[in-house]
Amino acid sequence: MEELLKQILGKLELLEGIPSKLEVIDSKLEQMERANQERFNRLETAALELLADSKETKEFQKEVRVEFAKVNNCLDDINGKLPYLIADVDILKEDTAQNKREIKVMKKLIGV
After folding, report:
1. Which domain of life is it from (predicted)?
2. SS3 string of 76-108?
3. Which residue from 2, 20, 75, 96 lies 20 to 30 Å from 57 (Cα-Cα)?
4. Residue 2 half-sphere exposure, CB side, CA atoms within 13 Å?
5. CA atoms in the 13 A half-sphere facing the CB of 109
6. How many distinct helices (H) and strands (E) make up the chain?
7. How far apart are CA 96 and CA 81, in angstroms?
8. How far is CA 28 from CA 19, 23, 35, 53, in A?
9. More confidently predicted of 1 and 75
10. Separation between Cα atoms, residue 79 and residue 7, nearest integer Å
11. In sequence order, what E strands does 3-73 have?
C-alpha cells in the first residue's frame, strides 16, 4: 500500500509540472501566431500594392495603345501624302532645270 501511495505521489508530482509546461507551450504558440499574423499582414500589403501597380500598368498600357494608334494614323497620313510630295519635288526639279535652260538662252540673247 505504501508503495502504491509513493507511485501515486510520484505521478501527482509529474502532473503538477504539466500546467507550467503547457503555459510555456501556449506562450510560444502565441508568439508564433503573432509572428505569422505579422507575416500575413506584410504579404497582404505587398499583394495589395502589386494589385494597385498592376492596375496602373494596365491603364498605362491602354494610354500607350491610344498613342500608338495616333502615331500610326499620322504615319498613314504621311504615307498617303508622300507620293504626291515626291511627284511635286520631281516637277520642281524639272521646272528648275527648264528655268536654268531658259536663263542660259536669255543670257546668250542679251550677250552676257
Report:
1. Bacteria
2. HHHHHHHHHHHHHHHHHHHHHHHHHHHHHHHHH
3. 75
4. 0
5. 6
6. 1, 0
7. 22
8. 14, 9, 10, 37
9. 75
10. 103
11. none
Proportion of the chain in helix, strand, coil states, percent, rounded to 5? 95, 0, 5
Residue with the three cell numbers 503547457: 22
pLDDT at position 112, please? Answer: 63
Give 1's DSSP letter.
Answer: -
In the structure grid, which three cell numbers stand for residue 31, read together?
A: 508568439
Which of the 8 DSSP states describes residue 26?
H
Separation of alpha carbons 63 and 61, rounded Å: 5
Q: What is the residue whose three cell numbers read 501511495?
A: 5
Sign of CA dihedral 50, 56, 58, 64: negative
List, for residues 13-59, the tens digit of each pLDDT value.
Answer: 767 777 777 888 899 999 999 999 999 999 999 999 999 999 999 99
